Amino acid sequence: MKRGFVIIAMVLALLWGGQAAAQDMPPPAISEAEVESRARDVGRALRCVVCQNQSIEESDASLAEDMRGLVRARIRQGDSNEDVIEYMQSRYGDFVLLEPPVQSNTYILWAAPFLILLLALLWFWRASKRQLSRPE
Amino acid sequence: MSGVRAFLPLFLFAVLLAWLGVALTKGDPRTLTSNLIDEPFPAFELSSLDDPAEILSEAILEDQISLVNVFGSWCTACVQEHPNLMEIAKMERVNLIGLNWRDTRAKGRAWLDKYRDPYVQVIFDADSELAIALGVTGAPETYVVDKSGNIRYKHVGIITGDVWRRDLEPLISKLETGE
What we know:
A: mainly alpha, Helicase, Ruva Protein, domain 3, 5 helices, B: Glutaredoxin, two-stranded antiparallel ribbon, 7 strands
């Protein structure tokens, strides 16, 4: 009887211990190769703020180097690519994004090529109609 | 009718030219406005320049008006700015904090010994940890932080006498009277 209790207590202790250990498990480790490939994706989307027209992946500037380091550190900590880009945007503004986001002050920028195409098609259509309807 | 029409492309071109003329010349795109104005100063834990074991945090900005000045021994413009920082330090109106950016401890300390040290405390940030959190793009750069720890102003470049009188001093006076 006593022995039974001891066994049950031991089993419970084991289970308890196991659970405690499970709670302490670190987040699934991400391989360095994955960190690197994701960091490159993120880095290519971010502008080097001191060289204006290079991404931080391409730039030799020391600040770009530190930004690359920060991108890798954040990915290792479990940030998603979007989290990292959002962080940089919160610090350096839209300027740090190499591709301008679609928002109120960039609608013209994004719409202009399509508007011009539309206008050109309209002009073409009207011009060709004029030619067709010309009497023989 | 066709006469007016012939001028339409020219007219459109003139409109485009005027628009680009205005849009492209207003402001220097290199001066990025800070995204952190009226936001709390970013939390940090970095060692002080002189003692790797002494950890500084945003607590050093508590309950006083602070100027956080980004500098480095490699920064030539900082040498020009330096006499003005010494003057500001003498006034004892603000908690003048240095952010020694992308430097080595030895070089940073030697630079301050050479030109004299105006700072109450110096944060050592070799890997741009706090610099990136602040959105720093170069040195010198200076942040005005109010008593509740919010960033109120960012000045990019040298604090000249003009900058102090025109931008910084009025803001500091305003913050002193408890705005």
